Amino acid sequence: MRRKRSVGQIMGRAGIRIPLILWTIAVLYPIIWMFIGSFKSNGEIYANPWGMPDQFNFDNFVQAWTDYSIDTSVFNSLIVTVLGALLTLVLAIPTAYAIERLRFRGSHLLFTVYIAAMMIPMVLGWIPLFFLLQQFNLLDNIYGLAMVYAVSQLPFTIFVLTSFMSTIPKSLEESASMDGLSPYGVLLKIITPLSMSGIITVTIMNTIQFWNEYFMALIFLQTEGNYTLALAIDYISSEAEYTNAWGTLFASLTIAIVPVIILYAIFQQRIAKGMTEGAIKG
Amino acid sequence: MVQSKKQKYTFLAFCLIPTFIMFSIFTLYPLFSGLYYSFFEWSGSSQDKTFIGFDNYIELFNDDIIPQTIYHDYFLVAAKVVGIMVLALFFAVALTQLKIKEAPFYRIVFFFPNIMSVVVIGILWAFIYNPSMGLVNSGLEAIGLESWTRAWLGDEDWALPSLILPSVWAGIGLFMLMLMGGIANVSKSYYEAAEIDGANEWQQFWKVTLPLVWPQIKISILYIVITTLNGSFIIVQVMTGGGPNNSTHVMGSYLYQQAFQQYNFGYGATIGVMILILSLFTVMILQFLMRRERVEY
């Protein structure tokens, strides 16, 4: 059904763009400004906090590296993120497969227990967890933190993987086990490769989650040498009130956000889809 | 299939038990033991843990700060629900119904803050609110409203409302996408029928879009409420630490202060139990209030 647009409608269509453009500026401006700030000297930030620098210089990044040893924090964050994401998969894939495909008594209950954990405020559990980690000698330890991270993302990961595995045709498993493949083989050589799309989606989201995480790191890590990037930034930020090292602070924020931007640029659709579906079904 | 019963159970155990043990140690045990800790007075060392029954709960009811933290939490919940839902719904309708060519660009941009770290968001916005260099005060000065400038996060009356903008800013994209998914599922024929009946775009929104995306709206509201009650303390901790003078403390940040800064671990656990009960209770009430039959035309 086509008809001529009235003048009012054309105006309306232009008008609708105004709020969209304003919100785009509201989202992008602070981020772009943070990038620019990381190339400005402190003097320039004070004199003209919202303008462009006279010349781009990398002193802030050098300072973040040397004065605040942010390289250690980046390295710690990398270890926690990669180990956490891998451990999540190792723990979640077999359970998701068993819940989805091997009908057993209590499988529904088990699934419900995992899913219910997504709704529970974990802050209550963090106090006992603190002392538990202390007993295991895993307090103030990035490997302990990676383990805590992995288990914290288990419910979400199991949830996403079961729904992906339910789309794999059953006949594939059956014919493989007819050919003499053990159930372990079926899981490793049939199911895992066929759910790769789900595994990738959930791993990207876990990776971003672990890279960004702040509060558990704040509670479970104590010495500066073990700080993850989020804690290092928080530390630089609280120092900046006295040292006024704003440029260094912006540089460290930039270091934290660039990997996320890169992941988002590559996997934008997967991330958006994974997060909306996780929220809708959960 | 050639497989004995024993083999089958061994495989099942292999799949389930290691994962469940890890989950029990790091999730189930801490939750239940948090409940147990709430009956003790405990400063963290193993010797001086004393059972005090319901004393922590009595203290909770007599603590003047607790009602404030609850109020602050629900203030943020209400502000975020209204702010996020109005804007997300507006953007979702604009990007799906109005055939804007560059819609994918807006979608990608608006979603990005959802995957930013709360630390980055909090610090960025703390700088935007900075009294001497921040964007807000510079902007007000530029348009001649010097009298409105203030130390936003340092002002007892303005610190909490100032936290709304970053929370909405960070949250909109996800809910916009959820609502867009709902709108995309509404069949075009409803709009055509409405148009033939002479309904304008505004009426179409109220009579067609809104009832049919109600399930997505409901889930979005629930999701905002749950994530705010369970996680608002993170942005509070980063931006204000609960200050000035407790004016931004929410339940979670007060728990952190009591347990991990003042070493009242028993009392902290009691606050945790309160958070658990309030958040479950709120979700149940909301689900009851929003139980509206799905509309089918």
CATH class category label of chain A: Mainly Alpha
Total domains of chain A, how many? Answer: 1
Q: Which CATH-level-2 architecture of chain B? A: Orthogonal Bundle
| Major sheet attributes of chain B | 2 strands, antiparallel
Helical amount of chain B: over 70%
Tell me, what's the shape of chain A?
Answer: globular
Into which percent range does the helicity of residues of chain A fall? over 70%
Q: Point out poorly predicted stretches of chain B.
A: none
The CATH topology of chain B is given as MetI-like fold
User: What oligomeric state do the depicted chains represent?
Assistant: heterodimer
Largest sheet of chain A: none
Estimate the mean pLDDT confidence of chain B.
89
Greatest chain-chain contact: A-B, 83 and 92 residues
Distance between the termini of chain A: 39 Å
Structural class of chain B: mainly alpha
Give the strand tally of chain A.
0
